[in-house]
Design brief:
The complex is a heterotrimer of chains A (271), B (236) and C (231). With 236 residues, chain B is α/β, with parallel strands linked by helices. Chain B contains ten helices and nine strands. In chain C, helix 3 runs antiparallel to helix 5. Classes of the chains: A alpha/beta (271), B alpha/beta (236), C mainly alpha (231). Chain B: Belongs to the ABC transporter superfamily.
């Protein structure tokens, strides 16, 4: 049996190549097509073949803590810092940002569009009894959404299953569900722009500093995880935060819109 | 021929099904070669006795010895042909080859000769289960004989076959008996009994009622129950 | 309608990405099927023809395992193959091999339980004759497998159908990595999450077509068998 496994591995696997790494990633960067555009350049520049496992931020961090990845690329700064503090990550780098937006039906029954700030927007959703579709999956977007509810002084769990719908799924699946139900949804902008099943839903609220969305990249520590391909992980990370990598990110557009704004080596106001 | 399985001694054989003794103390000794025909009404215990002898059923009580051997030790010298032949889902020839793999490897001509003897040589490469009932039973007999058994058991092997197949099977069984194989067969057919039997064992109610030379049995049975059976007067 | 047109377009233009993931799907599921068949067919046969204490319990467990959710299998295999898991040193997570292992775990109980049924029926018919001919053990198992070969194609087909249509396990252990572990079902899941419902449906139509072809093949084989009284 073991021989069989090894034979099959040799026949099928390219994973064990010395210059191949696994990146545990959030989904928005994959669903938006950023990796399809970026990875060939990274491979060209560094010789590193990058394999992306796109899951929610929460799961990506847990997978990386089990040493099932060489690099972590997610968007939940406090969790990433904890990851480094516990010794799983070598050093976290700011990579890029975009922002979260609130998606809702064009008719905007809760009149979210005219809200003065995001806290008021959420309060209106809850007060009018409109539906809200939440990721509910411990992802970066989900954590952000929960923080916003806390700020708004609302415990949405009380309405769970009635107006607060936790899909427990990825961004795309949650958008599919929310759009079909005419619900409001918190989404990162990149996923929304690249999302193809918008129907009559649109961005009803955007542009508030509270909706800032920072992505970070962290090579997994070789001390905790001896199997990590440190050299390749470092090469990939350093390329991402280099001038070349940063300008490549800035140049990526979808439907004529820039999706991610590089900000490595810059100090950004922290939310 | 390997060691003789004679005499076959059956002592006080009992088999209980539910609360009924379907074999109720069978005592029987078969000493001579030749063909022993077991007769008796349905439910008399003929098939069960034959299956005990072949080791297909474990009796609840009693003893069977064949020569100095137990049933288990004699099994590879026995062969049995069932009322409904079971053939593998393969060709005619492959059915024979499966039964005697050693012969098939060493001397495949033997298989063809066996097929020829049951008039199936031209069907060698056809699917066995496409054969007619008579042909299937002939193949089953050829298969049984290839193992060169010291004891051949046939359980109503020719019931419901066409006359030509019946006669062919009878002549093959007779010839095999002449070659020194002990044959025990169950039959309801008195004509067949007269044609084949050297001795007759008559069973009734799970016991052996009578064991007589064939001539005597068919002309002057010693028991009233056998006499009634032969006259067609027993209904169960 | 759009989806069918898109499916047709992908096929007639020999879309390279489509054929890559389709081929990986087929390859992974066929290898899983082959490994699983080698384990499950003799196991099912052995369970059908031997009697031992606890046999009924084994069959009960096997039947229960048939209904095991793929995502649970995926999770178990993930924990096994994860770098921090007992087999982490083999470096198999996020490879096609990991997906094969998950599918083997998933379909082995199915093929074993179904083949057990098939062989048990045949055993009713063959038992006395095999006993009479002294056919036992390994030789009997092989003979049953050979003689039930056409009925067993249905069991194997059920396993293949489950393997190739399965997404929950392979997405966890394979990671849905582009050009490495992306198969039809995980690609469909991905395209759905991107809201590309037409493309997702088109991929589904391609998978359905494959399934139809495989089924047609098996029906053809069975017709042939029935004609020769081999079924």
């Amino acid at each position: 049996m073991k021989h069989l496994i090894i034979c099959v591995t040799l026949a099928l696997s390219t994973h064990t190549l010395a210059d191949t790494i696994i990146v545990q990633s959030t989904t928005s960067t994959q669903n938006s097509g950023l990796y399809d555009y970026l990875l060939p350049m990274a491979e060209e520049a560094t010789g590193v073949k990058v394999n992306i496992v796109a899951v929610g931020t929460g799961q990506a961090i847990k997978n990386a803590m089990r040493c099932d990845g060489d690099v972590l690329l997610v968007h939940s700064k406090p969790d990433e810092e904890a990851f480094v503090a516990e010794g799983f990550g070598e050093k976290r780098y700011d990579l890029m940002y975009n922002d979260f937006v609130i998606i809702g039906p064009e008719s905007d029954p809760a009149d979210v569009a005219s809200a003065p700030d995001v806290v008021e927007a959420l309060q209106r959703i809850q007060q009018t009894g409109a539906k809200f579709a939440s990721r509910g999956d411990d992802s970066g977007t989900h954590k952000k959404e929960l923080a916003l509810w806390r700020e708004a002084g609302i415990d949405p769990e009380g309405g769970s299953g009635r107006w607060y719908l936790e899909t427990g799924s990825g961004m795309g699946a949650t958008l599919n569900t929310g759009v079909s139900l005419g619900a409001y949804i918190l989404s990162d902008r990149a996923t929304w722009i690249s999302f193809a099943n918008k129907q009559d839903a649109t961005i009803v609220y955007e542009g508030n500093p509270a909706l800032f969305n920072q992505y970070g990249v962290t090579p997994v520590s070789v001390d905790k995880c001896p199997t990590v391909n440190r050299q390749a992980a470092q090469a990939f990370t350093q390329w991402l935060v280099s001038v070349a990598g940063q300008s490549a990110i800035a140049a990526y557009q979808l439907n004529g819109k820039q999706l991610f704004f590089p900000n490595a080596n810059q100090t950004k106001p922290d939310n | 021929m390997p060691d003789s399985l004679l005499p076959i001694r059956i002592r006080n054989l009992r088999l209980i099904k539910g609360d009924r003794a379907v074999l109720d103390g069978v005592n029987l000794t078969i000493e001579e070669l030749g063909i022993t025909v077991i007769m008796g009404s349905n439910g008399a215990g003929k098939t069960l006795l034959l299956r005990c002898l072949h080791g297909l059923i474990e009796p609840d009580q009693g003893q069977i010895t064949l020569g100095n051997l137990t049933v288990a030790d004699s099994r590879d010298q026995q062969a049995m042909v069932f009322q409904h032949p079971v053939l593998l889902r393969r060709t005619v020839l492959q059915n024979l080859a499966f039964a005697v793999p050693d012969i098939a490897k060493a001397d495949p001509q033997q298989l063809l000769a066996a097929l020829d003897s049951v008039h199936l040589a031209d069907r060698a490469n056809q699917p066995a289960r496409m054969l007619s009932g008579g042909e299937q039973q002939r193949l089953a007999l050829a298969r049984a004989l290839l193992s060169k058994p010291a004891l051949l058991l046939l359980d109503e092997a020719t019931a419901s076959l066409d006359p030509a197949s019946v006669l062919l099977i009878e002549s093959l069984v007779k010839a095999q008996s002449k070659r020194g194989t002990k044959v025990i067969l169950i039959s309801h057919d008195q004509g067949q009994g007269r044609r084949l039997a050297d001795e007759v064992v008559f069973m009734s109610g799970g016991q052996v009622a009578e064991q007589s030379p064939a001539d005597q049995f068919f002309t002057e049975p010693r028991t009233p129950v056998a006499e009634a059976y032969l006259a067609g007067k027993i209904l169960f | 309608m759009n989806a069918l047109a898109e499916a047709l377009r992908l096929i007639v233009t020999l879309d390279a990405d489509l054929f890559e993931i389709l081929w990986l799907s087929i390859r992974v599921s066929l290898i899983a099927l082959a490994i699983s068949a080698v384990i499950s067919l003799p196991l099912g046969t052995w369970l059908a023809i031997t009697r031992f204490p606890g046999r009924k319990v084994v069959i009960l467990v096997l039947n229960a395992l048939m209904g095991m959710p793929p995502v649970v299998v995926g999770l178990m295999v993930y924990l096994l193959l994860s770098r921090s898991g007992p087999l982490g040193w083999m470096g198999l997570l996020y490879t096609p091999t990991a997906m094969i292992i998950a599918q083997v775990v998933l379909i082995t109980p199915i093929i074993a339980a179904l083949s057990h049924q098939v062989i048990e029926n045949l055993h009713q018919e063959y038992r006395d004759t095999f006993y009479s001919m002294g056919v036992t053990g390994r030789r009997a198992i092989v003979a049953y497998l050979v003689d039930a070969r056409f009925a067993l194609t249905t069991c194997i087909l059920a396993g293949f159908g489950r393997a190739i249509a399965e997404v929950g396990a392979v997405i966890i252990v394979g990671g849905n990595i582009d050009h490495l572990t992306r198969v039809m079902t995980t690609a469909i899941a991905l395209e759905t999450s991107k809201g590309n419902l037409t493309l997702a449906l088109a991929l589904g139509a391609v998978l359905l077509t494959l399934s139809l072809l495989v089924n047609a093949l098996v029906i053809g084989v069975r017709e042939y068998a029935a004609k020769r009284q081999y079924a």
